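Renewal narrative, Specific Aim 1. Our central claim is that a sequence can be written position by position from structural information alone. The example that follows is taken directly from our test logs and has not been curated for this report. It begins with the C-alpha cells describing the chain, in the order in which they were read.
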C-alpha cells in the first residue's frame, strides 16, 4: 500500500478522534439528553474547552478534503515519491500536534503547526499538478 494512502487512513482515524472528543465535551456540558435528542433547542455558548475542540474539528474537516485530493491524487496519478511520502507524514504529524495544542488553548505555536501541515500539503499538490 502506498504510504500516502496509509497516512490518509490514519487521517480518517484522527477525524474520528476529533468528532468523538468534541462530542464528548459538548455532551459533558449540555447533557446526554441533548446528545440523544433532536438538538432543536437554543443552547448557551459552549465553554472554552468544548468550543476549542469544536473549532479544531471544524478546521480539520475543512482541510482533510484537501489532504484526500493531494495524497490520493499522487497515488492515482502514479506520482508518489519519497518527497510525497515525507510530506504526507509531516502533514499527519502536524495535524496530530494541532489537536492537543488547540485543546490546551496554545495560540501562536498552534498556528505554526497548522502552517507546517498546510505547507506539506502544498508541496504534494505542487508535485501533483506539475507535469
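The sequence written for that structure reads:
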Amino acid at each position: 500500500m502506498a504510504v500516502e494512502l496509509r497516512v490518509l487512513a490514519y487521517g480518517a482515524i484522527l477525524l474520528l478522534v476529533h468528532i468523538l472528543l468534541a462530542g464528548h465535551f459538548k455532551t459533558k456540558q449540555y447533557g446526554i439528553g441533548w446528545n440523544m435528542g433532536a438538538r432543536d433547542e437554543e443552547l448557551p455558548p459552549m465553554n472554552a474547552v468544548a468550543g476549542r475542540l469544536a473549532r479544531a474539528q471544524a478546521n480539520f474537516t475543512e482541510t482533510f478534503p484537501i489532504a484526500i485530493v493531494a495524497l490520493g491524487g499522487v497515488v492515482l496519478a502514479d506520482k508518489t515519491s519519497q518527497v510525497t511520502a515525507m510530506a504526507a507524514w509531516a502533514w499527519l504529524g502536524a495535524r496530530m500536534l494541532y489537536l492537543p495544542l488547540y485543546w490546551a488553548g496554545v495560540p501562536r505555536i498552534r498556528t505554526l503547526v497548522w502552517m507546517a501541515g498546510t505547507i506539506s500539503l502544498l508541496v504534494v499538490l505542487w508535485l501533483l499538478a506539475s507535469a
